[in-house]
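Here is one chain, start to finish.
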Amino acid sequence: MESIKINGVITAIHLVEQKSEKFTVQRFWVKETEGQYPNTYEVQCTGKTIGVLNDYKVGDSVSIAANLNGREYTSKSNQQGVFMTLGLWKIDKVGAQQQQAAPQGYSQGSSQEVFF
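Its structure:
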């Protein structure tokens, strides 16, 4: 599957949440800047992408690439469903203040793109 690409503005950055001993997540919202009816998407950072948003703030114009992830689940009341998320793997600032962000341990070469 190809990644989903979104050009937009960051409208919210949520705090990092420790969901379990092995799973940490940080969510942020991006509102599209193109189209007649722009959508707002919740994108999540996990694993090595935690901390990438430290160089970003609400109002920044960004271009992101994310993978659509989904899995089945059964609730405690035995109802089944599908859980879906957009998992960040690339983010770039757009415009005059263009800047790259990469998680710790990744080098930032001369490229304007950062991959996770």
